[in-house]
Amino acid sequence: MESSYLVLLLMLIATLAIIHIVQAQDQQGFISLDCGLSEKEQSPYIETSTGLNFSSDATFIQSGKTGENKANLASEFKKPYRTLRYFPDGKRNCYNLNVEKGLKYLIRTVFIYGNYDGHDTSPVFDLYLGPNKWATIDLGQRRNNTREDIFHIATSNLLKICLVKTGETTPLISAVELRPMPNDSYNTTSGSLRLYSCRYFKETESYLRYSADIYDRIWIPKLKKEWTLISTSSDLKISNSFPPPKDALKNAATPSNASVPLTLEWSPQSLSINTLDYYYLYVHFAEVQDLQANEIREFNLVWNGQHLEGPVTPPKLELLTVFSRLPPRTCNEGKCILQLISTNRSTHPPLINAYELYLAIQFPQSETDERDVNVIKSITASYALSRINWQGDPCFPQQLRWDGLNCTDADMSIPPRITSLNLSSSGLTGTIASAIQNLTQLEKLDLSNNNLTGEVPEFLGNMKSLLVINLSGNNLSGSLPQALQRKGLKLSVQGNPELCVSDSCRKPPKKNIFVPIVASVASAAIIVAMLVIYRLVKKKNSTILQNLTQRPSAPTGNTTFANKKSKRFKYSEVIKMTNNFQSVIGIGGFGKVYRGTVNSSEVAVKVLSQSSSQGYKEFKAEVELLVRVHHTNLVTLVGYCYEGDHLALIYEFLPNGDLQHHLPRRGGRSINNWSIRLRIALESAQGLEYLHIGCSPPMVHRDVKTANILLDENFKAKVADFGLSRSFKSGVECQESTVVAGTLGYLDPEYARSGQLSAKSDVYSFGVVLLEIITNQPVISQASEDAHIRDWVDSKLSRGDIIEIMDPNLGKDYDSNSAWRALEVAMSCADPSSSKRPSMSQVIHELKECIVLENSRVNNIQGLESQANISSSTSVRPMAR
Ligand SMILES: *[C@@H]1O[C@H](CO)[C@@H](O)[C@H](O)[C@H]1NC(C)=O
Ligand SMILES: *[C@@H]1O[C@H](CO)[C@@H](O)[C@H](O)[C@H]1NC(C)=O
Ligand SMILES: *[C@@H]1O[C@H](CO)[C@@H](O)[C@H](O)[C@H]1NC(C)=O
Ligand SMILES: *[C@@H]1O[C@H](CO)[C@@H](O)[C@H](O)[C@H]1NC(C)=O
Ligand SMILES: *[C@@H]1O[C@H](CO)[C@@H](O)[C@H](O)[C@H]1NC(C)=O
Ligand SMILES: *[C@@H]1O[C@H](CO)[C@@H](O)[C@H](O)[C@H]1NC(C)=O
Ligand SMILES: *[C@@H]1O[C@H](CO)[C@@H](O)[C@H](O)[C@H]1NC(C)=O
Ligand SMILES: *[C@@H]1O[C@H](CO)[C@@H](O)[C@H](O)[C@H]1NC(C)=O
Ligand SMILES: *[C@@H]1O[C@H](CO)[C@@H](O)[C@H](O)[C@H]1NC(C)=O
Ligand SMILES: *[C@@H]1O[C@H](CO)[C@@H](O)[C@H](O)[C@H]1NC(C)=O
């Protein structure tokens, strides 16, 4: 037999065996649980026939009820198996035993249904070791008793033996026994060894186990009528490190008729075993008869008719163990047959002293990462959580995954990690457990609707993996750590009456800068000084701000045309889509803009004046580039037309026109809500930020102005006309220099002077836009001496009254703190020196803070101070849409 091999275990190191014998005789490392035993009255006790120290299982399992068997039991199952624990509640109930990771153990579970419940119905259920199935326990098949023994190497320091309900019947267990084994015993190439049969040969009822067997294997006596027993009273020599008990080896079976083989048969199918499992056979021989010099006992081992090993001659009064790994599917029709057949020269029939037969069993699913298991245990303990199905491995088997958890499950051989923890409405009290920070792969954390108190801990903001945090509906207090402002993190904290979510109490406290400003009656001198200080502080903080907001918003492309390929239209199509240029909706720097329809979607068709000096190739290259730029705050280019003299660009249509028209100086359809104005500013800033750092290659708009900020049906801002400045001069308001493009009043003076273009030029223009949004003053005043809007603000600033600066259309209905902060941002953007201007990312950060301030005021007014919903998506959209 090719795939089998033999190992003779004669020569194992004797000293090792001695060490183990000493340890084992102490019962060192033994765990002997008499399940269902009353903890107080009888535990622990010494079982008299074995000397084993049994104790109650009560401290190793948190669930189940105790019962007592009524029926008589077979002798080997008498004591300590009278009581039992059964599990009417929960699908999976588990014992947790402390073991040493990497050590090999004999793990034994005993199940005896002695009609404890009077129902006379034999239970059927599954047995698991951690995340892996070990066996199906069918007490109907072997009604009086079932025992499962396995040699298994512990994969963690906590062994979880679980009983899993699979039908209507109630799982039960009578005993759990654990015995440490020598590492080199019962080696397998892979997997653990599940016991099928372990026998010795004697005419008796009594089984052998501890202390006859130092490892407490259970040896059941066996005898057939066609066999004759031979035995010795002499001592045996044993140098095997895991030998059968000497008492077992002193007897041997031989066939009564010396001319027939000694035959052993098994039908392992009764174990419902995977037919691909390997068999592991250990046969123990020792000559117990006195043979004369001319006599010989010699035989071969034959497995299902095939030669397995031999010839073998058992040594006199000395143990010889034959070990063989037998491949699967070698047992015909479910029957495995081992024959010992004498050779021709043998003068005696074959003999056998003991044997063990095991099946290799694979446990492929890794246990959940031990660190995560420890954390979840610590969380369970700190909240005194008791959930019936939070037992066993948290992540596997998948159908028994702990409720409220989700885990990675890509590969069985990789320990799963916990990715989601949902403890909402779990009656949690106390503070947010610091152990949570050790769940380093956690993406979602839901602690909503509990009674958690204390502050929101800083560490939540530092957990890089977190995407969603829900802390709403608790009693949290204090303020939100700055770190929770991370982009890409969705944070919900509403329904915490004591929690301050406004910027003024955000950590680290910047509020000392703002406190005097809040008191808007303070003298002008103080305010001007504060503005100066603020800028200084901001400069110092600029790297931090940069880090917080570095990443531009991802392009969402939620418009009708987003992510579609650009389309080149024929001029005839342009005529058709605009219904022969019927409806003019604007006149821009490059030409007239008409309303049109493409595939029933509205579009804006910009017909370009034919002043372009470029050829078609360059134009096309540039348009192709623009078509690829998609951001929710940038107007989408749908297509273009280039046919002879006819050039046109087709954009998505934004029904609410441009921002300029919503800031009329006298009455009109003005947006008179500070919050909406801030949001429009923020969205425009996000569009610009994307152009500056989010798209490739980066772009400078060069013509940022209120007329180029368009508003969709929900008044969401989208920046228009970007990317074209290289091809087209911006027409009427252009500076004399042909290099410099831009609109008077919005044009960066430094760029105008030097011709050196940078993103900071857009920042300047944006500053002017923001000043318009705040003040609604003309960018260049015809009437005033202070011609530019910046100078106008400067002159008002010296008086220190925000009300005089703010657009009176807003009706003083704004948070002055928020207004001051926005004004500071605008003024620093519009600083004549480009080096003093912030980046768009910093601007975005500041505008978000403004919105938070304004929001908390609105909430206070509405008596909803307990309602604050901060999330990266909602905080920037305070208005319901
Ligand atoms: C049995 O084990 C327990 C601990 O499990 C120990 O306290 C007790 O002393 C032991 N009893 C004997 C007789 O060794
Ligand atoms: C058995 O294995 C464990 C873990 O690998 C190791 O700590 C221990 O020393 C080993 N014992 C023997 C006897 O080899
Ligand atoms: C169970 O044990 C009882 C008493 O020892 C015996 O009479 C009965 O035959 C056994 N039943 C089975 C199915 O082994
Ligand atoms: C069992 O495996 C260990 C490690 O793989 C090895 O050192 C030892 O010799 C093996 N023992 C036997 C009996 O094969
Ligand atoms: C022993 O077995 C052989 C072969 O099966 C048979 O011929 C013989 O009669 C048997 N002897 C006895 C005494 O049963
Ligand atoms: C054993 O005897 C059988 C028949 O009696 C014979 O076929 C076989 O060759 C013999 N084997 C040896 C090794 O002599
Ligand atoms: C758990 O996470 C997986 C991805 O790892 C996802 O497919 C699955 O829907 C999640 N299950 C639940 C209940 O959230
Ligand atoms: C947490 O569980 C609750 C109730 O089972 C559910 O409503 C909520 O959506 C879950 N939270 C997350 C983040 O999945
Ligand atoms: C969390 O991890 C730190 C560092 O690894 C460790 O000191 C601490 O004990 C862990 N806490 C818990 C509850 O696991
Ligand atoms: C929450 O905890 C506070 C303080 O311990 C207590 O007064 C309050 O009754 C608790 N509320 C609930 C719903 O348990």
From TrEMBL:
Matches recorded under Gene3D superfamilies: Phosphorylase Kinase, domain 1, Ribonuclease Inhibitor, Transferase(Phosphotransferase) domain 1
Compartment(s) of residence: Membrane
Catalytic activity as recorded in UniProt: L-threonyl-[protein] + ATP = O-phospho-L-threonyl-[protein] + ADP + H(+); L-seryl-[protein] + ATP = O-phospho-L-seryl-[protein] + ADP + H(+)
Signal peptide limits: 1-24
SMART domains: S_TKc
Residues that, per the record, bind ATP: K606
All residue ranges annotated as the Protein kinase domain in the record: 579-848
InterPro entries for the chain: Kinase-like_dom_sf, Leu-rich_rpt, LRR_dom_sf, Malectin-like_Carb-bd_dom, Prot_kinase_dom, Protein_kinase_ATP_BS, Ser-Thr/Tyr_kinase_cat_dom, Ser/Thr_kinase_AS
GO molecular function per UniProt: ATP binding; protein serine/threonine kinase activity
Enzyme Commission numbers on file: 2.7.11.1
The protein's name in its UniProt record: non-specific serine/threonine protein kinase
Organism: Eruca vesicaria subsp. sativa
